[in-house]
Specification:
With 192 residues, this protein is an all-alpha fold. The chain has one domain. The N and C termini lie far apart (64 Å).
Length: 192
């Protein structure tokens, strides 16, 4: 039998459907936060923010290392999950894609896969001070960039095998990081 990604033997359920191995499933779904029935991308972003709250994780060396490791783990795990579940979307994701990304994309990017949102949120907060205003601004900026997907983020979605799932959120995270810096400077100027 072939695995879900077609690269060798795979595990199948009693019904013959491919089974997603536990560790890639856990990683891709952001500790299962991707199973939120509404706004799974927002749930994944919140999971990334909750992990960021761990004391010391904001260290650029630690957070940067975590971003790189989880990026590659995300490419592998999201490809495995997408190969099994296809392009299944929650209703809220279907509405957002219809409104902001009407052209769609050929590569599967199921709603339950949120490791990309977790990594994108961490990129948003990289090198910024760990304060509540920064986290709020960063959260809003990342969700906006993830939903709107300004180029080249939208083009990245077309890259196959999990790379596109992750890379579009890397680009969204970079944009959101820049917006968060601007928001942080504006906050400091307004509040003093």
């Amino acid at each position: 039998m072939n695995s879900p990604n077609g690269s060798g033997p795979g595990v199948r359920s009693e019904t013959g459907r491919p089974v997603i191995p536990f560790l890639p499933h856990l990683i891709a779904t952001g500790f299962f936060s991707g199973y939120s029935p509404w706004a799974s991308g927002t749930a994944g972003t919140l999971a990334g923010l909750l992990i960021y709250l761990i004391p010391g994780i904001e260290s650029p060396l630690l957070l940067g290392s975590l971003i790189v490791i989880m990026f590659f783990a995300g490419v592998f795990s999201s490809a495995r999950v997408a190969a099994v579940v296809g392009h299944q979307l929650t209703q809220s994701a279907e509405r957002a894609k219809a409104r902001f990304q009407p052209e769609g994309h050929a590569e599967a990017d199921p709603s339950i896969v949120v490791i990309d949102e977790i990594v994108g949120m961490w990129i948003t907060l990289l090198f910024l001070p760990k304060t509540i205003p920064v986290m709020v601004i960063g959260f809003i900026a990342f969700r906006a960039m993830d939903i709107l997907k300004p180029q080249p983020a939208r083009a990245m979605e077309q890259i196959p095998n999990g790379w596109g799932i992750m890379l579009d959120d890397v680009v969204a995270g970079i944009y959101a990081n820049l917006l968060t810096w601007g928001g942080w400077f504006a906050w400091q100027w307004l509040v003093g």
